[in-house]
Amino acid sequence: METKSRTFLSLMMLSTLITDVLQNVALNKIAVQSSQNGTLGDARKAVDGNRDVSCLKAVCTLTVEEADPWWRVDLQAVYRITGIMITHRNEYVDMLNGAEIWIGKSREPTENVSVIEGRYVTVRLPGSKKVLSLCEVEVFHSDYAYSPNVALKGHATQSSTLSAFTDASKAIDGRRNSFYSSGFCSHTAENEADPWWRVDLQQTYTVTTVKVTNRGDCCAERLGGAEIRIGNSLDNNGNNNPRCAFISHIRAGKTKTFLCEGGNMEGRFVNVIIPGTRKTLTLCEVEVYVAPEGTALTLCL
């Protein structure tokens, strides 16, 4: 029996992932809603592929004024959902404030903490005397978001090595063990200028995400201020390549996922560098995930 708990995202906080290769699996699927205001505002209008934002043109859904109105689409299969985009009416820009998205494998949304999987996507507007109107709801799915970690087949090096047990390869051994004493973390010499770590992926990829696991037993603050750089150049040991992301902080022993600023980046070399003097770089795992050859990824926030 499934545990009945809910997964929801505030629409005001939602980061929408859109790519050239993502499939809108909601298109023309079965949609229902809590009520219908008139004959033209039925639930199917939100999955007809039309992003027109004028309700006057009868291309948007519309409920009556009621408590907690909702709209739901049945995707007719369970998908790993990588992004959702909602187009709302231009007449009332604040109408969706406070709305929630629920995702689940049954009509009662169920929680999955590792990935968001589901068959049913529900938009719900909590409160009394509310009206829900949606012009289009697009649900994106792509298998490549769960592609293999290509760093595992790479070759790693770093600016210096503290000991034989802390060489650069420890950060691409497939283990997220975050305790330095376990021997699964890389470590540069202490207090050097601009310490860096690099993995050579052996070929150029379109990099979509990089995951970094920080040291768990101590010194988590050391990684603050680090930069992830990606490119095809080895000038300055690869540290002159464009910046993918800035690491402000990763909690002790935690793994954080970084999406490259502005979208995907092409490169063979992935560097982690901490600019400054008297710095020490420790990495317990670096994972690199890529798009298939010939695809392009853009992140829209």
From TrEMBL:
Tell me if Nucleotidyltransferase is a UniProt keyword of this record.
Answer: no
Taxonomic lineage: Eukaryota, Metazoa, Chordata, Craniata, Vertebrata
> According to its UniProt record, which protein family does this protein belong to?
Belongs to the fucolectin family.
> Do you know which Gene3D superfamilies this protein is assigned to?
Galactose-binding domain-like
What are the alphabetically sorted keywords of the record? Calcium, Disulfide bond, Lectin, Metal-binding, Signal
List the molecular function annotations (GO) for this entry. Answer: fucose binding; metal ion binding
Q: What name does this protein carry? A: Fucolectin tachylectin-4 pentraxin-1 domain-containing protein
Gene Ontology BP terms: regulation of cellular defense response; regulation of complement activation, lectin pathway
The family database entries (Pfam families) matched by this protein are listed as: F5_F8_type_C_2 (PF22633)
- The residues the entry assigns to the signal sequence are 1-23
InterPro entries (UniProt xref): BG_Antigen-Binding_Lectin, FTP1, Galactose-bd-like_sf
Specify the Fucolectin tachylectin-4 pentraxin-1 domain's residue ranges. Answer: 22-146, 147-297
Q: Describe the task this protein carries out.
A: Acts as a defensive agent. Recognizes blood group fucosylated oligosaccharides including A, B, H and Lewis B-type antigens. Does not recognize Lewis A antigen and has low affinity for monovalent haptens.
Stretches assigned to coiled coil:
none
Q: How does it assemble?
A: Homotrimer.
